[in-house]
Predict the structure of NADH-quinone oxidoreductase subunit B.
Amino acid sequence: MSDINIVEAPPGIEGSGFFATSLDKVIGLARSHSLWPLPFATSCCGIEFMATMGSHYDFGRFGSERLSFSPRQADLLMVMGTIAKKMSPVLKQVYLQMAEPRWVMAVGACASSGGIFDTYSVLQGIDEIIPVDVYVPGCPPRPEAILDGFGKIQELVRNESSRRRNSEQYKEMLASYGIL
């Protein structure tokens, strides 16, 4: 809550205080605590994510207990596990079906870099086909690492300007992936 400053009201104005902040910060704060993740789990990292959703780690305390299995209702794509090259068009289509603003988290070594599978059939990191915002290391990563990665996504969402998605740099980055 350090992003919002409470300022005393000037003399003559009723009330004990009012909020003085920019609209971007309020929107970022609201978005960061209401992310709807779409888990795209293909192997052992998905099992670790299931443990993260359990009562011991309680992923829901961050405002994301509502998993969305429809890309049109999700704003955070969590890719977990090995992605075969045959699966890459499906992953890209899922990404494109998500509405802006959307964020991506690559969970585990396989989604981040192909992991131990340096073969012709495995995608060597999902950043070859879609932009990634946060990488979570590990094979498989512990639930604490997934929670840490989610915290970094929340920080990114909270501090992102609403104008970033309309900038030329962002459009060039999407064009480099063949998305625009």
Observations:
- The chain has two domains: 1-32, 36-157+164-176.
